[in-house]
Amino acid sequence: MGCIDLGFRFDNSFAREMSWAYDACLGDLAPAPKLIKLNSELAASLALGNRDSEQLARVLSGGEAPVGAEPLAQVYAGHQFGGFSPRLGDGRALLLGEVLDGSENRWDIQLKGSGPTCFSRGGDGKAVIGAALREYILCEAMHALDIPTTRALAVVTTGEEIFRDRLLPGAVFTRVASSHLRVGTFQYFAARGEMDRVKQLADHSIARHYPQLQQSKQPYLDFICAVRDRQAKLVAKWLLVGFVHGVMNTDNMTISGETIDYGPCAFIDHYDADAVFSSIDREGRYRYSAQPAIAQWNLARFAETLLPLLNDDEQQAIDLATEAIKGFWPVFNQHWLSGACAKLGLSEPQEQDGELCEQLLELMADDGVDFTQLFRQLAQDIETADNQAQQLFAKAEAFNAWRERWLARLSSDPHSKAQQVGLMNRVNPVYIARNHLVEAAIAAAEQGDYQPFERLTELLQDPFQVREGFEEYAKAAPASFGPFVSYCGT
């Protein structure tokens, strides 16, 4: 137990109930920890009482545990690019514990980059400043876009230099999640044939994330369906803002339905269904358009771990799980269609609207049209009765033909023109975490200049509101930026 009291109300249910699912450990003592960024809004919601920057830096660098914490590294397995790894675990992350906020909601506080654990597999367990700031920017950008995600609480530099392709400033990122339970957590124990522990883990997960299922007559089947529905909605939201996760391994899919692990991820500029940004995804397994199918595949792996809990008869258990997983597509399609229609100002989606949405995406792909800019321009054109959007297309004639069909469909929508514009502007951001802006902020920070990072994170807190003086932040990357490639940074 540490001597620094941050004011957090720790109640560590995972440490208390799942002693066989983790290794208790501490991070490395940082030589000169310094608090670079604290998310004050999130800190206040978590009732962080102690804002002393030196004490925060000491705790959030990993080497000292605060009062009430029980630091640990969780174990899990996972399918990585389709291949099963039976033992992964937190090799560069440390769960300080679970904090209760003022509404009795439970939140994990986890450090990334605090040093090696027993699951590090030869790695140093450290992170560099670029990876830490990148995850901070992306977490908070996604949160502001109303996409379920882990949150960013803080970034601390450690005072040491870490070698990657070169020496870089070391850093630790603090993230907050409703839990860090993953599909891979279940896979670890199921692969070992420890079904008693799979059941305990399922009961723990249901109590934490889906308490309404505790009274169900078939709680484990309903558990699969609940996780399925959250993931279907999540991935639909990703596609609707042009987000590519980049590494949808089963150890990166949460039971809670939150986006987790912002390593090789990116937002698309011009629309490209086959967009891949990860340096290691050479075959495009996790490309933009493949994300729903991969999510369903991951969910099937999750369902497999629970088969013995569904029915004593193996074939009946398989049949139940199969039907549950088949239900992914109707849920996903419903969320995607309603979201895509909202982007076009349609308040009451109709089945045939899917074709209208898909046609626009095809036109955008053919002409390399910026995904984010176009939808804001369409809303502006409705408001001004203009057609500036056609200037974004090389083949304006094809776009204008589509536009006529869209305007006809809008005319049948019960909402007024002003309401349609308002709907579009509520769901179509002006600003996203564009790759060239994130990279520029990181490059400056590596040289000790955090102003571009601060400016970008502040802007992305309200991505739907046009801001004077930020016109460059709404534009696609310049041609000189080149094809963007991202890496597993920590």
What are the SSEs and their pairings?
Elements: H1 13-17, E1 22-24, E2 34-38, H2 40-45, H3 53-60, E3 72-74, E4 78-80, E5 83-85, E6 93-100, E7 106-112, E8 127-128, H4 129-144, E9 151-163, E10 167-177, H5 183-191, H6 195-209, H7 219-241, E11 243-244, E12 266-267, H8 291-305, H9 307-310, H10 314-326, H11 328-343, H12 353-367, H13 371-384, H14 396-411, H15 417-427, H16 435-446, H17 451-460
Antiparallel strand pairs: 1-3, 2-9, 4-5, 6-7, 7-10, 8-10, 9-10, 11-12
Helix pairs in contact: 4-16, 4-17, 5-8, 7-8, 7-10, 7-11, 8-10, 12-14, 13-15, 16-17
Structure notes:
This protein has 490 residues and is α+β, with helices and mostly antiparallel strands. Among the domains are: 13-177, no CATH class; 336-427, no CATH class. The chain is 42% helix and 13% strand. The chain is built from 17 helices and 12 strands. The protein has helices at residues 13-17, 40-45, 53-60, 129-144, 183-191, 195-209, 219-241, 291-305, 307-310, 314-326, 328-343, 353-367, 371-384, 396-411, 417-427, 435-446, 451-460; strands spanning 22-24, 34-38, 72-74, 78-80, 83-85, 93-100, 106-112, 127-128, 151-163, 167-177, 243-244, 266-267. Strands 2, 6, 7, 8, 9 and 10 form a 6-stranded antiparallel sheet that branches. Strands 1-3 form a two-stranded antiparallel sheet. It has a two-stranded antiparallel ribbon with strand order 4-5.
Helix content: 40-55%
Q: Work out the helix count.
A: 17
- The beta-strand count equals 12
Oligomer state of the chains in this structure? single chain
Kindly provide the radius of gyration, computed on alpha-carbon positions and rounded to a whole number of angstroms.
23 Å
- What do the pLDDT scores average to? 96
Main beta-sheet annotation: 6 strands, antiparallel
**N- and C-termini, Cα separation:** 27 Å
Taking pLDDT < 50 over at least 5 consecutive residues as the criterion, the unreliable ranges are none
How much beta, percentage-wise? Answer: 5-15%
Q: Helix/strand-derived class? A: alpha+beta
Order of helices and strands: HEEHHEEEEEEHEEHHHEEHHHHHHHHHH
3D shape: globular
